[in-house]
Amino acid sequence: MDANRPYSAETDSPGVDLLGMARRHWWLVVIAVVAGLAAAAQFTSVQTKVYESATSVLVSPIGNGQDANSTSGRTKGDINLDNEAQLVTSTTVATDAAALMRSTVAPDTLAGSVRVEVPPNTTFLVITFSAPDAPTAQAGSHAFAEAYLRNREESAKADVAGRIAILNDKITQLNTSLTQINNRLAALRAGDPNRPNLESQRTTVTSQINTLAGQLNQLLTTTVSAGKITRDADLPGRPVKPNRLLNLASGAMIGLLLGVGAAMLRERLDQRVRRPGDLPRRVDVAVLAGVPGRVKPRLDDVFAPFGAGGRIFNRLRNEVLASIPAPVGGDARVALAGQVVVVAGASRGAASTVVAANLAAAFARTGAETVLVCAHLPDSLVDTASVHRMLGVRAVPGLSDVLAGRFSLSSATQRAPRHPNLSIVTTGGTASAGGLLQSQALRDTLATLRERAAYVVVEAPSTATSADAQSLASLADAAIVAVELRRTRHTEVADAADQLRRVGTPLLGAVVLPRLSPPRGGDEREAAEPQTPAIADDMTTVLEKLPAKVPAGKPAGKEDEPPKRIRTTPAPAVPTPPKRQTRTITVTRIPAEAPSENGADKRR
After folding, report:
1. Cα 217 to Cα 157, 164, 211, 220, distances in angstroms
2. Tally of CB atoms within 10 A around 506
3. Using CA atoms, how far apart are residues 358 and 310, in angstroms rounded to an integer?
4. Which of 75, 165, 370, 386 is the most exposed place for a label (fewest CB within 10 A)?
5. Spatial distance between the Cα atoms of 49 and 184, rounded to a whole number of angstroms
6. Using the 8-state DSSP alphabet, how is residue 513 labeled?
7. pLDDT for 31 beyond 90
8. Could you read off the pLDDT of 500-509 as tens digits, one per residue?
9. Kind and range of the H or E element at 527?
10. Cα–Cα distance measured from residue 240 to residue 246, given in angstroms and rounded to the nearest whole number
């Protein structure tokens, strides 16, 4: 497997990422949408009702009415409808409309309630009036249409009257001039040389009078038509505002946008790992395997080999085998044999314990000798699962006891009852073993385990709590980071990867677990555990089998006196397993000079 290959191609898609973000923060989006709907409903309830009524007015040209087309880029006639639309809202028209409505509202305020529209390629004006009640809206629309037509008609009549007055004045002046010319012609003799000139002037003035008279006659016969109402205002049946459906839809949309924005902000500020695709995208760590949420792992779970979790760790085993290069012409399994794989948690918790135990069980299922080494020292056992409960072995002796020299590695190595090829070295019970993971004893222990087992899986402490994981990784051949979703932060994963890479150990990738559930009940786990004898019971059995030494001078063949027995409660040298009561035992007193089987004094 390529260590840089992303976990899934689709996890980096922006659309999928956005959908996943909305799914993770659905409650935030729902709250925002509900709040938007509530705000829209509240706004609708307090919003003032608005009724609208419209009147259509046909605008006619002033004159003979032969060309009723409009100008201003609409059509080619004599009427500028844009100017006419502005005229409807003028103060003069608003004053006349207020008088028609018998309203005491200021004309400019009434004009603010008017909206004029010009349909394309027509000479119509649609005058719409808005009011808080239906009758006022109807009356206002009709009043403004009527006031506009009256104002336009009065303006047209005034224009015609002014033009008639001008023509009359010009005709009067020309008649005066014509009278003077006629009087001068009458005073001249027939052969006077000035007569032709005066006759020419009389002809010109007469022609001008006739032209002006024709124009005057045309103005006097012109019918002034400003336009007409083609569709009068109707009484509106329902208000146009508030629009409940529009307000609710707008509120829901605004709430949705705010919810998505809040989700994006929370996603941006939240540094916890939410899905496997975050690791290759944000911290450049490949994902070897991801346990789906439907598996719902617990703190003390070892998955069945044919279950969903077991199949995932079987694939993880294959990924580990494929990630370590084999010699030329060799097999990856042969290359990995006798090597050490460290599993370190990126954050405090039981993720590394669950991954290490299940990975070791997956290796053991191949028939190869596998050893699981638990390197969580007692001072770093915070919120972690107990391997001895998971695999059914004794809690002590363990690794810390071996490193402290209290027990040998052979006595601390226990066979897992349900996994024939799996041996476990638990954490141990030596509380004062600080710094032992950096000692030469640990190097010797791992070297011995390399010779005895095909696969050695080391459960390391979290990189966020101590430097022990880095020390263990320096002695291993490969490393894996265990990540618990919704608990581990991106910075912790990046720091863990940086620590492991700095010591030169190949980082194979990360194993992602969903948020681990609490372990099963103590009584249920206690009943499921195999009944293993306590250390004191084993020692008692050994001591009772030792032959008693015959005192010097005692006749041979004389029956020995029964040994004296005392009841003692041994002081615990190591912590006892959880939920295991201290037992009072009976031991046999042995003379001091009687050596034990291994040459050491066995008295406690």
Report:
1. 15, 9, 10, 5
2. 16
3. 8
4. 165
5. 81
6. E
7. yes
8. 888 888 889 8
9. helix 522-528
10. 11
435-490: pLDDT as tens digits: 677 788 888 888 899 888 989 999 888 888 888 888 888 888 889 999 988 888 88
Distance of alpha carbon 371 from alpha carbon 353, whole angstroms: 14
Q: What are the Cα distances from residue 46, in Å, to 40, 42, 242, 481? A: 10, 6, 9, 58
Task: Round to whole Å and give the CA distance between 372 and 459.
Answer: 7
Winning range, highest mean pLDDT, from 30-44, 397-411, 534-548: 30-44
3-state secondary structure of 40: helix
d(CA 577, CA 533): 12
The string of DSSP letters for 332-360 reads: HHHHHTTEEEEEEESSSSSHHHHHHHHHH
* Strand bridging mode 51-59 / 227-231: antiparallel
d(CA 410, CA 422): 14
415 forms beta bridges with 423
Return phi, psi of residue 304, to 5°. Answer: -65, 145
CA angle 141, 147, 148 (to 5 degrees): 90
Rounded Cα distance between 266 and 245, Å, is 31
Higher pLDDT, 547 or 293: 293
User: Residue 527, by phi and psi: left (phi above 0), alpha (psi -120 to 50) or beta?
Assistant: alpha
Query: What is the distance between the alpha carbons of residues 136 and 69, in angstroms, rounded to a whole number?
Result: 33
Q: Among 156-160, 343-347, 441-445, 588-592, where is mean pLDDT lowest?
A: 588-592
Residue 556 above 70 pLDDT?
A: no
Q: How far is CA 343 from CA 459, 538, 540, in A?
A: 5, 33, 38
Q: Which of 257, 248, 206, 465 is nearest to 346 (CA)?
A: 465
Neighbouring CB atoms inside 10 A of 464's CB total 20
Would you say how long the chain is, in residues? 604
**What Cα–Cα distance (Å) separates residue 110 from each residue in 124, 129, 141?**
22, 9, 11
Predicted local distance difference test score (pLDDT) of residue 114 = 94
Helix 134-187 to helix 81-88 angle (10° resolution) is 120
pLDDT level of residue 530 (50, 70, 90 thresholds): very low
Q: What is the pLDDT of residue 78?
A: 65
Report the pLDDT value the prediction gives residue 291, as an integer from 0 to 100. Answer: 85
Say how far apart CA 131 and CA 52 lie, in whole Å: 7
Write down the pLDDT at residue 129.
95
Say what the pTM is. Answer: 0.54
Q: Give the range among 4-8, 41-45, 284-288 with minimum mean pLDDT.
A: 4-8
Decide the pairing of beta strands 478-484 and 455-460: unpaired
Tokens (6 digits) for 297? 């792992």
Identify each DSSP E strand in 351-504 by its residue range: 370-374, 414-415, 422-425, 455-460, 478-484
Q: What is the pLDDT of residue 66?
A: 42
Longest CA–CA separation in the chain, Å? 206
Flag the least confident range among 148-152, 412-416, 514-518, 568-572: 568-572
Chain position carrying tokens 């087992």: 453
Q: Which residues contact 259 (CB under 8 A, 6 or more apart)?
A: 28, 29, 30, 31, 32, 33
